[in-house]
């Protein structure tokens, strides 16, 4: 190994001269580990920045389950990375602009600059080294990645049982890390979710590719992954295929201008939580789909509220207005206790 000059850049990657860095101790720490530690610190600082500057984005109540905690964290991170705020920048862009002068290691800075450009995607497990990393394939954007195994909540024996993941994959140099963690599902569950996704994509015209649509509607997709378990029953607290069918029917009947609004995404989230907590008995999915549309268009909790005719909605779904009234009251009672 060639001798490092006192005025040469330090091999650790800090950007400082060797004499003012590790030249003082003659010990050079492994740069990859240092970069990983610095990125973990920056990730925590980003969360603190969000809480200080945008506290209203944080949940007002503690999550009722581990699944809800994961969902809340994913939503918070997504909004911080991608939602443009007043002034034309995302929260993460504001954070990086403020902290960039204090980041001296080029490798750390290079990784941080990619975080705001990452995209939510779907990944498939390829192999596990048995120790610390997993290799995954990106099914929407292509390519494979070496990923930190600690952020995939599976035992070694379960990797082949639940080989599909979704989430945000952040660049950590030679490896990547899911943030806050990967959300895995079994193959049959994935195929059901993928079918719903592709049908929704066909119904819209705003996005030209499935990957762009998935990223743009990621917060709408998250509950399907978090709460869906293959073979779940109505009384298990998980999302069943019948509950998903309600959303499919709603998506088929609702006008395109409503489906592009944030309130529609919020409505889907409400439905997923309502099913998880109440396990409704669904004998006719069209009744619940019609009730969701009527709730979207009439409830004061949505910006679109106040312009719905119960009879017109009932005719569209070929159900009775009385059946809509009953389910509408259930949804309204549930949601009014949440806000």
**Uncertain ranges:** 26-30, 229-237
Give the C-alpha Rg. Answer: 24 Å
Oligomer: single chain
- The overall pLDDT, averaged over residues, is 84
Q: Give a short account of the largest sheet.
A: 5 strands, antiparallel
State the shape. Answer: elongated
Spatial strand arrangement across the major sheet? 3-2-1-4-5
Q: How large is the count of helical segments?
A: 13
Structural class: alpha+beta
Order of helices and strands: HHHHEEEEEHHHHHHHHH
Helix content: 40-55%
Cα-to-Cα separation, first versus last residue? 64 Å
Beta-strand residue fraction: 5-15%
Strands, total number: 5
List the helices and strands and how they pair.
Layout: H1 31-53, H2 66-82, H3 91-99, H4 106-115, E1 121-128, E2 133-138, E3 144-148, E4 164-172, E5 175-185, H5 187-203, H6 210-216, H7 218-227, H8 241-253, H9 256-259, H10 262-278, H11 285-298, H12 310-317, H13 321-336
Antiparallel strand pairs: 1-2, 1-4, 2-3, 4-5
